Amino acid sequence: MxxxxxxxxxxxxxxxxxxEPHYAASAALWALGETGSVDGLVSATSITTLYYLLxxxxxxxxxxxxxxxxxxxxxxxxxxxxxxxxxxxxxxRDFEDAVQYQCALQxxxxxxxxxxxxxxxxxxxxxxxxEAFINSKDWxxx
Length: 142
Hints:
Blueprint: E1 3-7, H1 9-16, H2 23-35, E2 38-43, H3 44-57, H4 60-73, E3 75-77, H5 81-89, H6 95-107, E4 111-113, E5 126-128, H7 130-136
Parallel strand pairs: 1-2, 1-4, 2-3, 4-5
């Protein structure tokens, strides 16, 4: 059984936009999802936000190419009434992060990989940066 890991949008953007100095670690995590070494998860809201940001930075065609890549590699998690309701009850300051956290919980994720650790303080799942995740070997098969 592979480790289920929710990948935050900032990590996806690091790869798709080749953002330095974060690209290498984020790309290594991406590769783990590509090879099936981890079960990479992304929320449906990340997909729509990703499209918006990529289109603004590049164009519609580039944005769609990025979305297709993400959807081909990672499992897209639904954001439904249950997720929204639980996110509203979360003490996390940022509602979008509360939605990410609830998606992770509903999917049985054991980690959230993000570069915004402070946004997920107090979560019951492990929260780490791409570098920490890769270096921990926490992605090995359980």
